[in-house]
Write a structure and sequence with these properties.
DNA polymerase, domain 1; Pyrimidine 5-nucleotidase; HAD-SF_hydro_IA; 2 domains
Amino acid sequence: MSEPSAKKDDRPIVWFDIDNTLYSASTKISQAMGQRIHAYFLTLGLDDDAASELHHRYYTQYGLALRGLTRHHQIDPIDFDRKCDGSLPLEDMIFPSESLRQLFLDIDRSKFRVWALTNAYRTHAERVLKILNLTDQIDGLVFCDYAEPNFVCKPEPAFYEQALKVANISDPTLCYFIDDNKSNVLAAKQLGWGRCVHFCEHGLESVEGGKKLVINNSDVGSSEIVSVTNLEELRSVWPEVFKQ
């Protein structure tokens, strides 16, 4: 689920999702991942259409295809991770960004902590942060612990509640959060997380469960959620977070 619990710290936390947030969906990583997950569903003995339908259904119902696989099929989630996330040629698909690193450097660390909150397993999350040259800018990491039976993930309330415990923060209004999945953002908002932002790259598409879906579907949820198309916009949305 996470790194060891943090020591008592009264600073608010800025939570960043990782995939399709710290890098653009134009990298096509989600499509490459979708192909690998589809191939994994085929190993269940399904034909193409049935595999696509089940993949899509699990992704829609649980927020993570693997969540459905572990609930309804006898699969090894670590094996799944190795064959799907672990086989991605990430070093050829994403690269460090000076502007992104500067955005993190400009966060006022005297007033705020910075954590990552991801549905990926730890190995994938750490790999992405290392490639993006952001490892030293992340104070803590909360991830889906595939090694745990009945693990939880975004947008399940239990995932956010465990995140607060791990980060040793009792007041959810002290949480800032950005994610490319609007359902994940809405779930955090409904749990009282203070300043939630939807990262929405208009027009980009992702393949989930063998079906094309518009990323960050604006049909989901509430007009109260602030949207940005570029992470640089956080400087205006969350001005208090950055050094003056």
